[in-house]
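note to self — DONT lose this again. spent like an hour looking for the file last time. sequence + predicted structure for the chain T wanted, 193 res
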Amino acid sequence: MGGFASQRESAHFKPMQMTFAKRWQAAQPDCMLCKRIVLAWLGCTLAVGLPMRVTGAENAAPVPSVPAAPADPRGVTVERARTSIYVGIVTLTLPTLIRDGLSFRGTYTTKVFPYFFYNEHGDLSIEFSEDAFARLAAGETVPFTGSAQNTKGEPRRIEGRAVPSDAQHGMIKVRVFVTPKIELIFNTTYHFQ
């Protein structure tokens, strides 16, 4: 009885399948005509619209991707930064660094938690040439170097790079070489004044 029902169902669907196939074949010329009309319309739109947009683009003034940095910033503020060490955290705090010729000068303070006996403060200087300002204004990443000295007279070498996000702000990565083999890496932001 199950076989008889499946034969009846297949016989029932055969005419519908054939009818659908015949309908599909009959509709193909209409679909092809619609495709041709749409493609012709699209081609005309592109042919007319493209020269108009090119002409408008030639007359428009170029827009710089990053506005120019200040030609002569008085100082730079660097946000407080933290880095992890073995079972501890080092926090670097810098007040506003004041421009002095081709460098920014100021003081620094480091707090080492929980090893408070490693806390220190001192003076620091970051070298930054006029060419570096121009490259920063063009949106380029600019490397820099500097030096620091704590109150005990121990030197610290500094290397880093500045990545601008706009004319006044950006991100900064600073490496402080405490010894030739130990370096601390800080990631923070800067703001020109």
